[in-house]
Design a protein that fits this description.
Blueprint lengths: L1 E5 L7 H16 L3 E5 L6 H12 L9 H25 L10 H11 L3 E4 L7 H4 L18 E7 L12 H9 L3 E4 L2 H11 L5 E2 L9 H9 L12 E4 L5 H14 L4 E5 L10 H10 L2 E4 L2 H9 L3 E5 L7 H9 L6 E2 L15 H24 L2
Parallel strand pairs: 1-2, 1-3, 3-4, 4-5, 5-6, 7-8, 7-9, 9-10, 10-11
């Protein structure tokens, strides 16, 4: 089959890159001709032009454009750093597409048998809020010619953040061949907000791939020799004092003398490659993170870990997977959740048994949707 995948623009976010790589490589390994549809936020092109013009005006920093540009420049540098890996692991990527018309023309030219939207927070309004955000509900795909499938789409939170557009989105969802979401709460959102009662709860694509895929295809294939072993690894997206207290408490109780900070808390200025980021979890003795995919890769590599709840970035992503695996005690919010309590070692034989069954059901959904007549 000819299959298009639409996800959030992948650039420097490790989890965002890896979920796209996992879904792409899964479908490619089954013999499908797969293309990543690279949608960019509408308006980005004229903002770039405005910045270039305003940069040339001396002593002028309208709405902090020049100040923000410096931060943006650092982000662009990291994006460029990760691009070779993305292009090595995802074999076909479209040109940058901005508008509904551009997406329609591309889908028509490619003659897709199916277009899959997902995974990650592709249905979180805050993250997709540009003039063409309904593209993530595949409004540009002709359902008479191509199947519309949502795989592990996420709203990020326990509610739809949009207003006044539920009826239109409800119509778009009715046009899907099949819908699945990454969180159990998202199944309920589909039903309560959009009247779609057939959504299915599935695993994030990264969990569909074996541990061997990440070790053999990434850690071994790329240079990860500078990643230390046997340490407390932290990957913290949002620094806060209570998170520092948790890290210090874990270090004291695990008696791990060395810490490898991947991000946050005086971490080095090194930008780690995706394989190096993965190797950091593989080499860890214990992990502390506030990242969903940091949690996921702790589980994939069977590590002891705690995950710090992150309300602003969406808590349901954490609770849904942890409750599924019986690991609710690994979610903490401050050091008091750990004091006076001894975490038992994770029984990964039990966890992996659950994961294998959930993986079977997730693959059954995806393959069934693609084979649906």
């Amino acid at each position: 089959m000819k299959i298009g995948i639409l996800t959030l623009p992948i650039s420097e976010n490790y989890g965002g890159i890896l979920q796209a790589v996992a879904l792409y490589r899964l479908l490619h390994a089954q013999g499908h001709d797969v293309v990543l549809i690279y949608k960019r936020p509408y308006g980005l092109w004229w903002k770039k032009l405005a910045i270039e013009i305003l940069k040339k005006i001396p002593f002028h920093d309208y709405r902090n454009i020049k100040t923000n540009y410096k931060a943006t420049k650092a982000v662009l540098k990291r994006k460029a750093f990760h691009r070779p890996f993305i292009e090595n692991e995802i074999f076909k990527i479209s040109k940058d597409l901005y508008t509904k018309k551009e997406l329609e023309n591309f889908a028509s030219k490619e003659k897709f048998d199916a277009v899959v939207v997902g995974s990650d927070q592709v249905w979180r309004k805050k993250y997709i809020n540009d003039a063409y955000y309904k593209s993530y509900f595949l409004d540009f795909v002709n359902s008479r010619k191509s199947k519309k499938i949502a795989y592990a789409a996420s709203f990020g939170k326990d509610r739809w953040e949009g207003e006044g557009d539920s009826e239109e989105i409800a119509k778009l969802l009715q046009d899907f061949t099949a819908v699945s979401t990454r969180e159990a709460s998202s199944v309920e959102i589909c039903k309560s907000s959009f009247g779609y009662a057939d959504a299915v709860h599935v695993l994030d694509p990264t969990l569909l791939m074996s541990k061997g895929f990440y070790t053999d295809e990434m850690i071994v294939k790329y240079d990860t020799s500078n990643i230390p072993k046997g340490r407390l690894v932290t990957y913290v997206l949002d620094e806060a004092n209570e998170k520092k207290e948790i890290i210090e408490f874990v270090q004291k109780n695990t008696k791990l003398e060395s810490i490898h900070h991947l991000k946050g808390f005086n971490s080095s200025q090194i930008t780690y490659s995706v394989p190096q980021w993965i190797a950091s979890f593989d080499n860890a003795d214990f992990v502390v993170t506030d990242s969903f995919h940091g949690m996921v890769f702790s589980i994939i590599f069977e590590k002891e870990f705690v995950v710090i709840g992150n309300h602003n970035r969406g808590l349901d992503r954490f609770t849904s997977l942890l409750s599924l695996l019986g690991l609710e005690d690994r979610l903490v919010f401050d050091v008091k959740d750990l004091e006076g309590k001894e975490l038992e070692s994770i029984d990964y034989s039990r966890v992996n048994k659950i994961l294998e069954e959930e993986k079977r059901k997730s693959l059954e959904f995806l393959m069934g949707a693609l084979d649906d007549k």
